[in-house]
Amino acid sequence: MDRLLxxxxxGQSEWNLKNLFTGWKDPDLTETGxxxxxxxxxxxxxxxxxxxxxxxxxxxxxxxTTNLVLEELGQSDLPQIRDWRINERDYGDLSGLNxxxxxxxxxxxxxxxxxxxxxxxxxxxxSLRDTLARVLPxxxxxxxxxxxxxxxxxxxxxxxSLRALLMVLERATPETIPGIELETGVPVVYRLNAxxxxxxxxILHA
Length: 206
Known about the structure:
CATH topology: Rossmann fold
Strand content: 5-15%
Shape: globular
Structural class: alpha/beta
Number of strands: 6
CATH architecture: 3-Layer(aba) Sandwich
Strand order of the largest sheet: 3-2-4-1-5-6
Order of helices and strands: EHHEHEHHHEHEE
CATH class: Alpha Beta
Helix content: 40-55%
Number of domains: 1
Largest sheet: 6 strands, mixed
């Protein structure tokens, strides 16, 4: 049985380009982001990877990426399961601010703590631990069973919500997970064992 799970961080968004904190705000992809999403679909197709189940967030940049990936795979008619629980981390009062401006207001060290610590949330927002608290139950209850049944599954989401899945798949810790980055529009292909541990991992770089 092929227990396939593919994770894709959405392509570059308009706010990624402007170096803004995005969180639950809803900008679309840039032209570069569109190209990244299409390239992700093309690389998956070249590997002979297609899907039975598609999960994405409630945010436009992830959904647009999903649509473009599926289009490249010839699977545009595949139903998508969209859920806020795999949304990006909510940056609260930082949302919409330029990262350099935020550092000027609160200090670079404080902003870095909000961005990279495991359990310190920005004002009005979520810590990475808070994000994990909603993503991991959803993964265990909704996504993982599909994979273990042999349904080829893709999750198109965000840097921080996908980090939650990396904590499970790669046994990352609160100390190591803040340093793990996912590239925009680059598929990470896992094959799982029957006990849900990772059998193999491949990153489909350009």
